[in-house]
């Protein structure tokens, strides 16, 4: 059976609480002593291992003494996410850094978003590093992979579902935009921004007001601000 690793104390704990099956669980003696929930896990049986073995198995020392093997992550259907009632989606255009994807997923889950959508090519997808960066939020939020992001956006947009490009040069700020209806917020990779065809497919563009000297924010920070502004407007 194909398995996928999840490492880190919070990511593994959320995996145990989430829908996918956890098949194997390792922890160091120190982690077991400091994390009482590990002693309460009934299935799978906890195996206490030296830290060196966890580091070798995970390929990183960033496991915090806890490592699990789960069934593979099950991606959502992007079209079904967009077809829901008043959806709120975060779409990422070729964001390759797994830490950024994980951070966006964490913010989106906290803001009550419907899901996150990424293209199949040139983008990070769900990996152990993404699960770690999301602090386990990926276990509770739908993530969809679509073949072509521009085509997907063109197919799902409708009168009650608007597509907003997040750009630094947009005249309309997120405070002035109406974010109460069905909505997809589209964010580009740092440096490159949105690809022209993706930008052209969007209905409009909105920006985050900046009063300092920097011209832009990290994509995960920008996504968090806009998602929570949408949450605020929706009450």
How would you explain this protein's 3D organization?
- This protein is α/β, with parallel strands linked by helices and 235 residues long.
- The protein folds into 2 domains: 4-70, 60s Ribosomal Protein L30, Chain: A, CATH 3.30.1330; 78-234, Alpha/beta knot.
- Helices cover 35% and strands 21% of the residues.
- The chain has helices at residues 9-17, 29-34, 36-40, 51-58, 78-82, 98-110, 128-133, 149-156, 196-201, 219-234; strands spanning 4-7, 22-27, 46-48, 66-70, 88-93, 115-119, 143-146, 161-166, 182-188, 204-206.
- The strands form 2 sheets. A 6-stranded parallel β-sheet has the order 7-6-5-9-8-10, sandwiched between helices. Strands 1-4-2-3 form a 4-stranded mixed β-sheet, with helices on both faces.
- Helix 7 (128-133) links the parallel strand 6 and strand 7.
- The mean pLDDT is 95.
What tags apply to this protein structure?
Alpha/beta knot, 235 residues, 60s Ribosomal Protein L30, Chain: A, 6-stranded parallel β-sheet, 2 domains, 4-stranded mixed β-sheet, single chain, alpha/beta
State the order of secondary-structure elements, H for helix, E for strand: EHEHHEHEHEHEHEHEEHEH
CATH class of the largest domain, named Alpha Beta
The CATH architecture assignment of the largest domain turns out to be 3-Layer(aba) Sandwich
What shape does the CA trace take? elongated
Distance between the termini: 44 Å
Radius of gyration: 19 Å
Helix run count: 10
Given as residue ranges, the uncertain stretches (5+ residues, pLDDT < 50) are: none
The strand line-up of the biggest sheet is 7-6-5-9-8-10
**Arithmetic mean pLDDT:** 95
CATH topology of the largest domain: Alpha/beta knot
**In total, how many domains does the architecture comprise?**
2
The fraction of residues assigned to DSSP E strands is 15-25%
Q: Could you tell me the number of beta strands?
A: 10
CATH superfamily of the largest domain: SPOUT methyltransferase, trefoil knot domain
Q: Structural class given helices, strands, pairing?
A: alpha/beta
